[in-house]
Design goal:
heterodimer, A: alpha/beta, Aspartate Aminotransferase, domain 1, Aspartate Aminotransferase, domain 2, 2 domains, seven-stranded mixed sheet, four-stranded antiparallel sheet, 14 helices, 15% strand, B: alpha/beta, three-stranded antiparallel sheet, globular
Chain lengths: 443, 479
């Protein structure tokens, strides 16, 4: 049963109006030789039977494990109000707001989202969301190529490796070149990054905090990039921006990131949303939907999709991007989250992450065979060097219900004893101390 | 309505942050801290609830209004799928990448594998990846796979062919995958001009992107021939799955000769559109393209357990993890619950509803291609244009009468297009009410056209000044 309401009598009436004898006749334009050779699916189920299967799968999804892992996705609180408001069907069962008079709810919310994400990143303009952190970074790279008319990107290898892989694929398709600069331990190699920027460089891409958790001021790098006519692209972590210096304050040209930490549950990989903010001068180069304020004939304020001439449905192959559906509902969750926490709340949340992480660092660094690898400041993630291969330790601790961190080895050659540990506000002092005890036992 | 910022009162807050159980740390050095807290709204939870509830009431949505938006498949999104999709909230995808991690996440891995198998059977493809996060993202992924295939065969083909009736995302996606675009016009019979296509085909063409049924809602009788012509020239054929809702159980693109397909879970497989996403755009391929699928792959071992494997020859990673998982979970639930017969019924009833709509409206509205349609029908407001009434005026009138308008001005090859897709979940009664208002609009167009120019008048705002929006360019509430 496919939620199809028409009764056999109604179907007969409709067929009579159409002037055919059967539903099958409506498919007569399809030649026999093109008919499906197979459609081998099981019979349908009731809601109850379906949910029994779904609950079995959910019971085997690691939700009971204590997470000290990040990798760009963070185990943060999600206030109940986020689920309830974004769960209003008027939001989630609407389409992209092509008819603005009957979509002011979505449009105004996205305008408020654009405003909030600009304030958070310290930038001037935003679009209405992209897919995720990795694709947002790729779009930022393409945007920099368009703006500068150049074909080469410098990438700090301490940018999230998952995001870098996505960027690599997008750049490869367009035969653009990227130079990856190895980090200096857990910190970006600022001198090598500076030296790599030339008059051919479209952009230099960095991330703050970086994949190892280190927090850096990129103000001088922005200046250096600008001297060569290149752009600074900064990957950001929204919750960290409650505390750390904004890319806007550093002089960044394009800021991107994954909005997951703003009220979107982990959900085994999505949906989340990507964000992208920039300065006013580059707004026409932004990919995706942009919401703008305007008025109707009576002077009443309203919101519309604007600068649509950049987009695929108008410009086709000359569009700034192919993006059509974005992650609107997840951006709405981000807006509700930012509004619920508010100005002080987000600062408090960020400070709490910082305090918990500093506490964990102090506890772990007291364990024999464990050292903190970051030389400078971190936010809520840091890298530990262990006396044994990190993968072995993580595997062992996982059997005890604790995900101790993300071993670096698969992503950074030769760093097999290092482990990135994430401590959000949800981790308790007791959980941190339990991990410390287990670590000690595993070394 | 006021903006959330206009409700803000300094010092007010909505959510209580957990109390710290650790000592206060030495502060982050000043040079690394932001100068001022982000100027986010300061509101109480009730302010927040009233604000967003108020906003939601300014939307038309499937749950509140008939929404026959052509090409978008705005079917009812069953509530049980929402329950199913929310079961995995605290499952961290990075667990699957840890040593010993996959055994902790067998549930979601089995779901991904199961959905891939369901979609492969439904589309007649050999393997599926769920990584792409939306339809257009699937298109780009599919064309990247095709590019990798040609490259592996030592060929550097330059062009991708699209019909002029294609979705704008097709040429845009192919361009992002590095191709130049060749556009083929529509023939008088309503589909891609076969002679022009033959003439454009050569050994520099990497792929042809087809939507079938096409954006006019017509099943192309030459589709197998198009696949053959492309294959003879060494090109591959891409199936845009936007209109898959028309052919479930009737036609499988893989049987017809297509090499690559993307499907929109947010169209055919019952997941909600979210006001513009999140969608999900899995890509299916025939066996010769499996090596080029994105990394990583979810695999089933001989012992029946699921693992995650790198896919070294593939195009790399197109999104961060395994796709929009909670959307995929809804689609898996939808396919599992409907089953074989339910899915066939979906397409049969979608096609029946569209043909009923077409039969009832064609006396008053110009039907450029008067043949049996599939899941949607495309009219033109050309008759109404004689009285100075455009498709947009009819669309706005429908809003006043409580209906979301059909898609207008698409496809581009129909003047004043009105594209109606009722979907299978709407009843005859709902369609009859809509038809009555459409006929009434035609009558008003003949007799009192100026009334249509003023519509809508029942909405919180009337027609908005889009030129001003683009010129003044206010995209953010200034501090």
């Amino acid at each position: 049963m496919g939620y199809c309401p028409n009764t056999p009598d109604e179907i007969r009436e409709m067929l009579a109006v159409i002037g055919v004898g059967s539903v099958e006749e409506l498919f007569s334009a399809i030649p026999d030789k093109l008919r499906a050779k197979s459609f081998d699916l099981p019979a349908g189920l009731s809601e109850f039977e379906l949910m029994r299967i779904m609950k079995e799968k959910a019971a085997a999804s690691g939700q009971e494990i204590t997470n000290f892992i990040g990798g760009g996705l963070y185990d943060h609180i999600v206030p109940a109000v986020v689920d309830h408001l974004s769960g209003r069907a008027e939001f989630y069962t609407a389409y992209t707001p092509y008819q603005p008079e009957c979509a002011q709810g979505t449009l105004q919310a996205l305008y408020e989202y654009q405003s909030s994400i600009c304030r958070l990143t310290g930038m001037e303009v935003s679009n209405a969301s992209l897919y995720d952190g990795g694709t947002a970074l790729a779009e930022a790279a393409l945007m920099a190529l368009r703006i500068t008319g150049r074909n080469s990107i410098v990438v700090d290898a301490s940018v999230n490796p998952f995001h870098r892989e996505v960027v690599q694929g997008y750049l490869h398709s367009l035969s653009a070149h990227s130079e990856v600069i190895a980090p200096d331990g857990c910190e970006p190699a600022m001198d090598r990054l500076m030296a790599a920027i030339t008059d051919e460089t479209a952009a230099v891409i960095v991330q703050n905090p970086n994949f190892f958790g280190s927090v850096t001021d990129f103000t001088e790098l922005a200046k250096k990039a600008h001297q060569h006519g290149a752009l600074l692209v900064v990957g950001s972590y929204p919750v960290a921006l409650g505390l750390i210096k904004t890319p806007g304050e550093m002089g960044a040209d394009i800021v991107v990131g994954d909005g997951q930490s703003l009220g979107n549950p982990l959900s085994f990989g999505g949906p989340y949303f990507g964000f992208i903010t920039t300065t006013k001068q580059y707004i026409r180069n932004i990919p995706g939907r942009i919401i703008g304020e305007t008025v109707d004939k009576l002077g009443r304020r309203g919101y519309v999709l604007t600068l649509q001439a950049r987009e695929q449905h108008i410009k086709r192959h000359k569009a700034t991007s192919n993006i059509c559906s974005n992650q609107s509902l997840c951006a709405l969750r981000g807006l509700i989250f930012m509004s619920a926490l508010g100005k002080e709340g987000l600062s408090e949340l960020a400070a709490l992450n910082y305090d918990k992480s500093e506490y964990a660092k102090s506890v772990f660094s007291g364990i024999k065979g464990v050292t903190v690898a970051n030389r400078g400041a971190t936010f809520n993630e840091f890298t530990l060097t262990l006396a044994r291969p990190a993968a072995e330790v993580v595997e062992k601790l996982l059997t005890q219900g604790i995900a101790a961190g993300l071993p670096l080895a698969p992503y950074y050659e030769g760093r097999d004893k290092e482990l990135v540990v994430t401590v959000t506000e949800k981790r308790t002092k007791a959980e941190i101390e339990r991990l410390a005890g287990l670590l000690e036992g595993a070394l | 309505m006021k903006l959330i910022y206009e409700l803000s009162v300094s010092g007010r807050s909505g959510v209580r942050i957990p109390v710290s159980d650790v000592p206060k740390a030495a502060p982050l050095p000043q040079s690394l801290r932001r100068a001022e807290p982000a100027a986010l709204p300061e509101v109480a939870e009730l302010d927040l609830v009233r604000h967003f509830t108020g906003l939601s009431r300014r939307n038309y949505s499937v749950d509140t209004n008939f929404y026959p938006l052509g090409s978008c498949t705005m079917k009812y999104n069953a509530k049980v799928m929402e329950n199913a999709g929310s079961l995995f909230a605290d499952s961290h995808p990075v667990l699957a990448l840890l040593p010993g991690g996959p055994e902790k996440v067998q549930g979601p891995l089995s779901l991904i594998h199961g959905l891939e198998q369901q979609l492969a059977e439904i589309t007649g493809m050999d393997e599926v990846t769920t990584q792409p996060l939306a339809g257009a993202h699937g298109e780009m992924t599919g064309i990247m796979v095709i590019a990798a295939y040609h490259k592996a065969r030592g060929q550097n083909r330059r062009y991708v062919i699209v019909p002029d009736s294609s979705h704008g995302t097709n040429p845009a996606s192919a361009a992002m995958a590095g191709y130049e675009i060749v556009t083929i016009p529509t023939a008088p019979y309503g589909d891609m001009d076969l002679d022009a296509f033959r003439a454009a085909m050569n050994d520099q063409v990497a792929a042809v992107m087809m939507t079938c049924p096409n954006t006019l809602g017509i099943f192309n009788p030459h589709i197998a021939e198009i696949c053959e012509i492309a294959h003879q020239a060494g090109a591959l054929v891409y199936y845009d799955g936007a209109n898959l809702n028309a052919i479930l159980g009737k036609v499988r693109p893989g049987d017809v000769g297509f090499d690559v397909i993307h499907v929109n879970l947010h169209k055919t497989f019952g997941t909600p559109h979210g006001g513009g996403g999140p969608g999900s755009g899995p890509v299916g391929v025939k066996s010769h393209l499996i090596p080029y699928l994105p990394t990583p792959r979810v695999v089933k071992g001989a012992d029946g357990t699921f693992g995650v494997e790198a896919h070294p020859e593939g195009i790399g990673r197109v999104s961060d993890f395994f796709g929009n998982f909670a959307i995929m979970a809804r689609a898996f639930a939808y396919i599992t619950m409907l089953g074989r017969e339910g899915l066939i019924e979906v397409s049969e009833q979608a096609v029946l509803n569209a043909n009923y709509m077409m039969a009832r409206l064609k006396e008053e509205y110009e039907l450029p291609f008067d043949i049996t349609c599939m899941h949607e029908c495309v009219f033109s407001a050309s008759r109404q244009l004689k009285d100075g009434v455009h498709a947009i005026d009819i669309a706005k009138y429908l809003i006043d009468r409580g209906f979301h308008p059909p898609t207008v001005y698409f496809p581009l090859n129909v003047k004043e297009a009105i594209m109606i897709e009722p979907t299978e979940t709407e009843s005859k009664q709902t369609m009859d009410s809509f038809i009555a208002v459409m006929l009434e609009a035609a009558e008003v167009a003949r007799t009192r056209p100026e009334e249509l120019h003023d519509a809508p008048v029942t909405t919180p705002v009337g027609r908005l000044d889009e030129t001003r929006a683009a010129r003044a360019l206010q995209v953010c509430c200034e501090l």
